[in-house]
Write a structure and sequence with these properties.
Helix content: 25-40%
Shape: flat
Structural class: alpha+beta
Number of strands: 2
Strand order of the largest sheet: 1-2
Radius of gyration: 14 Å
Order of helices and strands: HEHEH
Largest sheet: 2 strands, parallel
Low-confidence stretches: none
Distance between the termini: 32 Å
Number of helices: 3
Length: about 70
């Protein structure tokens, strides 16, 4: 799906939400027993895909401490 989406002309966004925080969500990674993500993570830098880490980046994406109305 990411290959198809980012192959077209014009600006495109290829984004992988890396579920690497087992405290918030089921974690899956390169060697997890389900939902392996090894090929996509390896291809991301070469293809210009953005990888968002639930463990490291999630508060920048979704402010957990802010109210829904704050900027």
């Amino acid at each position: 799906m990411l290959e198809w989406t980012t192959a077209g002309p014009g600006a495109r966004l290829g984004l992988i939400l890396h579920h690497d925080d087992a405290e918030r969500e089921f974690a899956y990674d390169r060697n997890s027993p389900f939902g392996r993500l090894d090929r996509a993570l390896a291809a991301a830098p070469q293809r210009g895909w953005t990888v968002v880490s639930m463990r490291n980046d999630w508060e920048r994406v979704y402010r957990l401490s802010a109210s829904p109305c704050s900027p």
